[in-house]
Design goal:
Two copies of one chain form a homodimer.
Chain A: H1 33-41, E1 47-48, H2 61-79, H3 89-100, E2 112-115, H4 117-129, E3 135-140, H5 144-152, E4 156-163, E5 166-167, H6 169-181, E6 188-191, H7 205-218, E7 221-225, E8 249-253, E9 265-268, H8 271-285, H9 290-302, H10 305-330, E10 336-337, E11 345-349, H11 356-365, E12 368-369, E13 371-372, E14 385-389, H12 395-419
Parallel strand pairs in A: 1-12, 3-4, 3-6, 6-7, 7-8
Antiparallel strand pairs in A: 2-9, 4-5, 8-9, 10-11, 11-14, 13-14
Helix pairs in contact in A: 1-11, 2-9, 4-5, 4-8, 6-7, 10-12
Chain lengths: 438, 438
């Protein structure tokens, strides 16, 4: 018999007295074994090319300390008090100035909602738009925690393939048409168009207007997630999708341009959507931290933040170059990768038949970690793919990590040639490290 | 015809291009006109007895500034980095020591989840347990933003009345039995047992075990929300419900004992529930702010926090006394109130026929604000009730506010005697100020 919610707590299952009480959305909330491996990967002898931690050692910490001390001493009764659910008005003005660097000229501070990192903005947008069974379209591969958020609201995820110029417009149009013909028109197209996580690719300028037009014609809301846009290695920032379509909902973050520990991100949305997001934010967290918001606002107003961005860009470019050089130097033929123009990630494709997930324990034994591709797909794809991050280790460590990884892959190819493919096993639950791991 | 999700954005409704796309849960997300009044109430000439802001001017801000400066300068690469979704291990240990003051002797740091304020803990518990249509039982009246959270997850709320000793056990048993007989056994009983928001009452020791037993027999999870427990005006802290039942899910907060601007709260839950909460937290916000968590952990470890609690308790007791004295001095016969033993709030009952919501604009015109009782009920009750807060204004301002309020009520009684009851109007949306207003 199915347990009923009014059964008394069941101590014959001592590990879970409330197992009969969970919501349907909680059924899929499982931690995978793959995830547990990443805890091991944080040991210092292991070169982790797995995590997505920015290298905030490059920040002037003494200046940040002085800024915060002054803020608390002089404006502590505001900074340490409750704030408004929509966020600090001064910070929302500054955020508009930041977005202007990506071509968003018409943003109004009143249409910005400050959130506890852009992850919360993603959560709030999903909460406001997605009923159980609704369809969300994403790139394939896509940001792993976005998949978790969509799953938490019981969305069905459909993928559109990427190539080296980003999502393929013809494929997007075909997926939207198919879903419409199946009677389940999607509500959202979630995209990381610039320096994508995990694939490192950027939607080309030629494709941007096409993507906007395709979604507009299909009545699909474009949800543009852009945490890496200002970490470009060449020229000027890419023009955001939102710059050319005010109906786009845009998500931004200070986690990569300043510091993730502050947990400050935002959404820019059409006014009526913003109103819903504010009410959803209030029931979710009451308000973002005024202290964190005023820290960011003061930083943007008083510190040379554009110079600091330049420091970050040069540091990450040097690390990307170290990774690419090492891939060229060490990797066997038949292994492919791309050249990201910014951000944190390179996407690596192994020869068909290799299984990056099955290989991970051996890699960790060889003191190198990466994220298997499977975590970035809602379906069973990505087995012979992996994400390599160059954001956190030093260039020397990156080179050593790639050398170790190449060795593991070579052995795997040899094994595969001798014994054929490894039997596949389905893994449930989040399959990438939390961002807190190096 | 019903708009379909695949309709293109509808600019004939220029205020909402995505109005056809919202989730069902977003339909009820409306800001009420009553809410808008509270923005006016924050003007300095108005004595606000409406908000729930703690008086953090009583904190040693220079010490807090020094603490944070040292933290960022010495441990900034950790404090400003991503953290674990469950929260900082050191802080979780400290939280267990804080809970021990309320009789919770068996809490393990591994069963604590740190959240962005206890509001987020409430949101996560609701997310993990509540499917649309599930029933949640609460006290009547109850915390307004809990009602918003339950509404955001499409729960049906059923109330159990309070008296001056807290929720009435016989009434609780009767409601649970009725709901079971109606085929909708509730999943949660949400309670603020100590210095309740909004009613200021405390569940008596004699009733505590009864409430636990009733819920246990009915298979209902007790969700104990306890932000005010350490702000008691006499004797020792009340023993938490969780102290006598490890299956209770307990929510705590540093917003009232330290500072709400840090946004640090927590949940203590049975291990299996905690596992679900951590996964839900990760998809909601990735992690709570390490900076905020390390600030709290350092504060608890290095500052005389128990002395500071005493400062808060004495200050709030003086303000409670000012409020009660003024009520005695100014209020007309037929008006009732209780004497809270701690916390921030007094609940006032007007003579039958008076309408506290209809009276609010006149009160604000007379430069005093309160929260009408209706906001704290999911049904249409509370018309002749109101919440008065004594946490934020000085004792002199409190007395002046009550004097003004008594004058408004006297006029209202005169009008009511002359013209009879005021026609009622239904108000949708949140009907209490956000906590950020004084």
């Amino acid at each position: 018999m199915q347990p009923q919610p009014d059964d008394p707590p069941d101590h014959s299952h001592p590990r879970d007295p409330w197992r009969t009480h969970y919501a349907q959305r909680a059924q899929g909330m499982l931690a995978s074994e793959v995830r547990a491996l990443f805890a091991v990967a944080s040991r210092p002898e292991i070169v982790s090319l797995a995590g997505g931690m920015p290298n905030i050692a490059a920040l002037p910490l003494d200046d940040m300390a002085a800024l915060m001390s002054d803020l608390v001493a002089r404006r502590g009764t505001v900074a340490l008090q409750y704030g408004a659910a929509q966020g600090d008005a001064g910070l929302r003005e500054s955020i508009c100035a930041v977005m202007a660097r990506e071509g968003i000229a018409d943003a109004r501070a009143d249409d910005v909602v400050v959130t506890a990192g852009s992850q919360q903005a993603l959560d709030l947008v999903t909460r406001v738009f997605i009923d159980p069974g609704d369809t969300v379209v994403t790139e394939a591969p896509t940001y792993v925690t976005a998949l978790n958020t969509f799953a938490a609201f019981q969305a069905r995820v459909e993928h559109v393939p990427l190539d080296r110029e980003g999502v393929i417009p013809e494929a997007l149009a075909a997926v939207l048409a198919r879903l419409r013909s199946e009677g389940r028109p999607p509500k959202l197209f979630y995209t990381v168009p610039t320096f994508q996580n995990p694939a490192g690719v950027t939607l080309s300028p030629a494709r941007r207007q096409q993507v906007i037009d395709i979604c507009r014609r299909a009545g699909v809301l474009v949800l543009e997630d852009n945490p890496y846009g200002l970490l470009h290695f060449d020229g000027e920032p890419m023009r955001a999708l939102r710059a050319d379509d005010p109906d786009v909902v845009y998500l931004g973050s200070f986690s990569k341009t300043l510091a993730p520990g502050l947990r400050v991100g935002w959404a820019l949305a059409p006014t009526a959507v913003k109103d819903k997001l504010v009410l959803a934010a209030e029931s979710a967290v009451l308000s973002p931290s005024p202290l964190a918001q005023m820290t960011v606002e003061t930083y943007l107003r008083t510190q040379p933040w554009e110079d600091q961005l330049k420091v970050f860009r040069e540091m990450y470019r040097e690390r990307r170059d170290a990774l690419l050089d090492a891939l060229h130097q060490y990797m066997s033929p038949g292994i492919g990768w791309n050249t990201p123009g910014g951000g944190f990630f390179v996407w690596v494709t192994l020869p068909a038949g290799l299984d990056a997930q099955a290989m991970l324990p051996r890699a960790i034994g060889t003191r190198v970690a990466y994220v298997p591709g499977t975590g970035f797909y809602a379906d069973s794809n990505g087995r012979h793919e992996m994400r390599l991050s160059y954001c956190y280790p030093t260039p020397d460590r990156i080179r050593e990590g790639v050398r170790r990884l190449a060795e593991v892959i070579r052995e795997e190819i040899t094994l595969h040639e001798a014994f054929g493919p490894i039997p596949r096993r389905t893994v449930r639950g989040p399959q990438a490290p939390g961002p807190e791991l190096p």
